[in-house]
Amino acid sequence: MTSKRQLLIDTALQLFYEDGVNSVGINQILKVSGIAKKTLYHHFNSKEALILAALSQRNNNFIRWLESHLKNATTDQQLIENLFNALTTWFTNSAAELGDFRGCFFINTSAEFCDPNSEIAKYCQSHKRQVRAIIGKYLSSPNPQLLDALCLLKEGAITTAYVTNDLEAAQKCLWITAKFKIAL
Amino acid sequence: MTSKRQLLIDTALQLFYEDGVNSVGINQILKVSGIAKKTLYHHFNSKEALILAALSQRNNNFIRWLESHLKNATTDQQLIENLFNALTTWFTNSAAELGDFRGCFFINTSAEFCDPNSEIAKYCQSHKRQVRAIIGKYLSSPNPQLLDALCLLKEGAITTAYVTNDLEAAQKCLWITAKFKIAL
DNA sequence: ACCAAAGTAGACCAATCTGTCTACCTGATA
DNA sequence: TATCAGGTAGACAGATTGGTCTACTTTGGT
User: Fold this and answer.
1) Model confidence over A103-128: pLDDT tens digits?
2) Residue A123 CA, nucleotide D12 C1', distance (Å)
3) Rounded CA gap, A8 and A49, in Å?
4) Strand D reaches within 7 A of the B46 CB
5) A183 band by pLDDT with thresholds 50, 70 and 90
6) Number of H helices, E strands in chain B
7) How large is the average pLDDT for residues A59-86?
8) Tens-digit pLDDT profile for residues A152-174
9) CA nearest B86: which of B119, B59, B115, B64?
10) Which of A129, A148, A171 to mutate to test the interface with B (most CBs of B within 10 A)?
């Protein structure tokens, strides 16, 4: 069955997100999941392939979670509130689907893979594009400048919440957007 | 003399920033710098101590660079322009003092060290506090909300420029601040 | 002139890393 | 019933990791 494959991905994602991709060895993943090494290399060619699978899994989880928070917004103002309120639930470990907050898995993983042409770096880039597209989809009308502003504030909030442990970062973004009535 | 010590720090910082702290081994630093292992461990107790020294060096470089760009601003508007224009020169590799852009060394290093109580994570946190304080110092009057906005946008710009290779991220921040006349 | 600190080269250690391999077991399907 | 993908355990290989150590040389200040 593919259940072992899935268990490997789940375990890898959990550990990778928790400790960083380079800090987690194959053997640790095998130990935690209770799966044999041969089985891992039957399903994945290399550690990199497993990392990509974990990134993909996280991408799916994150996008499903994000979309569930944005979908019922009827105005741009509501969309903005939903977005940053959702981030706050994430930062405060109230978003069970995303696990204990340890920053953005894709930003963190990018930091560990310098080569911007690696598959891993490219995947992280595409994740950010997807997230941007989703937020844009729920805007009442195309508005690249507002979209840029929301994405930049979002990235700033995630980074700030993680590095400086400022759990209010997303709420501050809300106050900021409230101040500038830009194109709302 | 301490010249060897300094050479070690310079080499370590260069390699750490380029490839990530966990991807660079002690032996690589020794090879590049041409310094003996005994000498390294004479000056530093451990790799972690060397990392902390490299972080400190980078902190000094960055703050000196930042301050040089902000100091002659006479209005808040000018300060904001100086800040984000400076970031753009960094992103486009026109800030020689900071080396080829590879994101924020402190964000990247935080991503590699999960434990928020580690000395390294704490140092990264304190760097961000210092940068915030410097920007605040040059505001015409204390304005925590504006300061929050600038810091969040700044973090967002750095992260976005690095992960998605969007070199215009800082310029977008400028357009955004131009739109909202918040407390200027 | 002397002495301690700072430096050299590099062997060595134990641990860990990714990845390969042998030998065997299990269960579903043709 | 035969077959084959998927699974097990774990030894093994080859490289690399951070760090210690010995034995020796260079250098600068008193």
Assistant:
1) 999 999 999 998 989 999 999 999 99
2) 34
3) 12
4) yes
5) very low
6) 9, 0
7) 97
8) 999 999 999 999 999 999 999 99
9) B64
10) A148
CA to C1' distance (Å), from B39 to C1? 27
A47 with A120: CB under 8 angstroms? Answer: no
A169 with B152: Cβ contact below 8 A: yes
Taking a C-beta distance cutoff of 8 angstroms, is the pair A127, A55 a contact? yes
Distance A48 CA to C24 C1' (A): 29
The answer on pLDDT for B1 being more than 80 is no
Work out the minimum CA distance from A71 to partner chain B, whole angstroms.
24
CB A102 to CB B114 under 8 A?
A: yes
> Nearest nt (C1') to B50 (CA)?
D18
Task: Identify the band that residue B181 occupies on the pLDDT scale cut at 50, 70 and 90.
Answer: low
Q: What residue type is B170 in one-letter code?
A: A
Alpha carbon B134 to chain centroid, angstroms: 13
Point out the least confidently predicted range of A82-86, B5-9, B156-160.
B5-9
Is nucleic acid strand D under 7 Å from B25's C-beta? yes
> Which of B26, B22, B23, B48 is CA-nearest to residue B35?
B26
Chain position carrying tokens 């902000």: B70
Q: How many residues does chain B have?
A: 184
CA distance A48 to B157: 28
The per-residue pLDDT for range B53-72, each reduced to its tens digit, is 999 999 999 999 999 999 99
Q: Which of A162, A180, A167 is nearest to A80 (CA)?
A: A180
CA distance B163 to chain A (A): 6
With tokens 């300061």, the residue in question is B147
Query: What tokens does B63 get?
Result: 């703050």
